[in-house]
Description:
Layout: H1 7-10, E1 27-28, H2 40-47, H3 63-73, E2 80-83, H4 85-96, E3 103-107, H5 113-120, E4 124-128, E5 147-151, H6 163-171, E6 178-181, E7 203-208, E8 221-225, H7 227-237, H8 247-257, H9 260-283, E9 287-288, E10 295-299, H10 305-314, E11 317-318, E12 331-334, H11 338-351
Parallel strand pairs: 1-11, 3-4, 3-5, 5-6, 6-7
Antiparallel strand pairs: 2-8, 7-8, 9-10, 10-12
Helix pairs in contact: 2-8, 3-8, 4-5, 4-7
Pyridoxal-5'-phosphate (PLP) is lined by residues 32, 85-87, 111, 151, 155, 181, 183, 208, 210, 216, 221.
Amino acid sequence: MSRFLSKATSILQPYTPGEQPQAMRYIKLNTNESPYPPSPRVEAAIHQVDCAGLRLYPDPDVTTLREAMARHYSLTQEQVFVGGGSDEVLGYAFMAFFDRGDKVYFPSITYGFYKVYADLFHLRSVEIPLESDFSVNVDTFLGLDGNLFLANPNAPTGICLDVAQIEKIVQRNRNRLVVIDEAYIDFAPGQSCVGLIGKYDNLLVVQTFSKSRALAGMRIGSAFGHPDLIAGLSRIKYSFNPYNMDRISIAAGIAAMGDEVYFKEITGKIIATRERIRTQLTAMNFTVLPSQSNFLFVRPHTISSGALYVQLKENGVLVRFFNKPVICEYLRVTIGTDDEMDEFLQILRRILPCA
Ligand SMILES: *Cc1c(COP(=O)(O)O)cnc(C)c1O
């Protein structure tokens, strides 16, 4: 480590992304990307980007994309924020709504980035335990003395609370900000709580184009909330990176928002594949959590998950293994195409001879 690192930087434990192998071709079921390409309209829009125009800065207010999103969700532009992936949007929320030393609540098993941000911004993390079946007990999230981050569906479990349960948490923490990270909500039709933001000024809903809109490589995330919350995020953005959305991302995002038919088609296919694979893995003696996302969290019983991860990798299939207490008994398997998943099952049957 450089001797110029600050003490704070030297003790950070950065987020560990899933492997992104650049050479060997794997069936890649490890980072919850879409197995399908983005809408053909995205490709067309990118081709139409005026390259000479790239000499100019992009619109710092990102008006066109925010307008497109507002229209889609029947919101006003003042209720919409966009950023470079939802990770950036979440980071702005950590910067905007906490002072150093404040408490921040999140489930004991959830998206690893919340803890990373909490440490980066010198907050006190409080982890609320999940039930033994990995479900969120709503009663343990009421009346908190700090802001709350909740991924819904949760990661890496895939388990989803319904809108009424989220509303109860928001209602019973009226003086706390409740951030609902809906990275996977498009795989849980009808469960988004974006419809609640007009009713509660303490609810911020964060979404991403990385999973359901097949644009992880483009880096587009969003937040929906009361105009004052959105203005708070903007204060941070204009204090940190005013041009956070480049011209190509903006064009791609607008095109993706405009193709609802394609969006419904690929999310529907992923949901159908997920249900089929869930049934088959259960029949093969795996414990499979009831996921409403684009991945399954599964526990093998005739081999350790660590050994299975290694053997799958040797056979050309990448899944996600978390070397942490409790969840180390499981593997997170992203839903691929039907062909990819059939090959995955075939390889599994070879690795687990008695299954
Ligand atoms: C993937 C993911 C994100 C980050 O997505 P971006 O690519 O940064 O938009 C945020 N939250 C959860 C729970 C995720 O799984």
